[in-house]
Amino acid sequence: MMFAIAFPAIDPIAIEFGPIAIRWYALAYIAGLMLGWHYVKFLCARPPHAMRDTDVDDFLVWATLGVVLGGRLGYVAFYKPLYYLAHPAEIVMVWHGGMAFHGGALGVILAIILFSHRRKLDLFAVGDAVCCAVPIGLFFGRIANFINGELFGRVAPDVPWAMVFPAGGPEPRHPSQLYQAGLEGLALVVVLGLMWRVPAIRNRKGTIAGTFLIGYSVARVIGELFRQPDAHLGFLVGGATMGQLLSVPLFAAGGLVIWWAGKRRPRV
Asked: What phi and psi, each to the nearest 5 degrees, are found at residue 69?
């Protein structure tokens, strides 16, 4: 027996003024950055005071560039390198879609390193505060994926909440975007927020950032078990998807950061 819930037909364009169209996907990025900005300010008002308010304000620009440039270049390098080598002019056409979290993560990590060095801030303290806020953006991003009907799940004929996505054929599929919004977004923001409330963890700078890297990697690997692989890539080594393979070095990096945090002498 086939189960399916009708996919809610939400217009990907949220606001339209003549030739100007603002999409939910763009609003998701804006919401993630704005809410994350205020959340980091809230966190930095408490020990170990990773950044001043003015630093957080200035870092928002760095984070935005890291997310957009890193996410786009990551998609180009990880998912369609041959296509963009043949069509280099399309690399800048971000409105056609194509962003990769792992690339965005590298962009934000680079932004944190450069910004901390420039302002003479504790790199790991800044990383902890920023990583606490990243899941907010991940949540809104996955909700936008769902609204767009993209990055849908694998066929799930016996799941009562399966949906028929407009671009996914007639078979009911897992709404994997919602699974990932819950795991990568809500679950992570709660776990990291609870960790931040413990002074012993908060003062061992780097522990929260490392936990985020590990937690995201685990959430992504689980989410990819339900998500339909990219059509042009399919399943790769050992039946893994590109998202799962890219999460392996991220997981290792998180473990390394936590190990390094344990080696440092915590300062109150």
From this structure: -70, -45
pLDDT tens by residue, 26-51: 999 999 999 999 999 999 999 999 99
Residue 241: phi and psi, rounded to 5, are -95, 170
The count of other CB atoms within 10 Å of the CB of residue 160 is 9
36: which residues sit within 8 A by CB, 6+ positions away? 63, 130, 133, 134, 136, 137
Cβ atoms of 131 and 209 within 8 Å: the answer is yes
Q: Best-predicted range by mean pLDDT among 88-102, 154-168, 215-229?
A: 215-229
Three-state DSSP state, 230: coil
**CA 59/CA 50 separation, integer angstroms:** 12
Whole-Å CA distances, 62 to 13, 19, 76, 122, 212 = 27, 30, 21, 17, 20
For residue 242, the tally of other CB atoms under 10 A from its CB is: 19
Q: Under 8 Å CB-to-CB from 177, ≥6 apart: which residues?
A: 142, 143, 145, 146, 150, 151, 152, 153
Q: Which residue has 């364009």 as its token pair?
A: 13
Chain Cα centroid distance, residue 240: 19
Q: Which H/E stretch holds residue 21? A: strand 20-23
pTM of the entire predicted model? 0.93
Q: For residues 218-223, give the mean pLDDT.
A: 98
Q: Angle CA(156)–CA(150)–CA(91) in degrees, nearest 5?
A: 145
Whether 156 and 162 have beta carbons less than 8 Å apart is answered as yes
At 20 the pLDDT is: 86
CB 178, CB 141: distance < 8 Å:
no
The CA distance from 210 to 206, in Å, is: 6
List C-alpha distances in Å: 175 to 8, 48, 70, 144: 12, 40, 26, 12
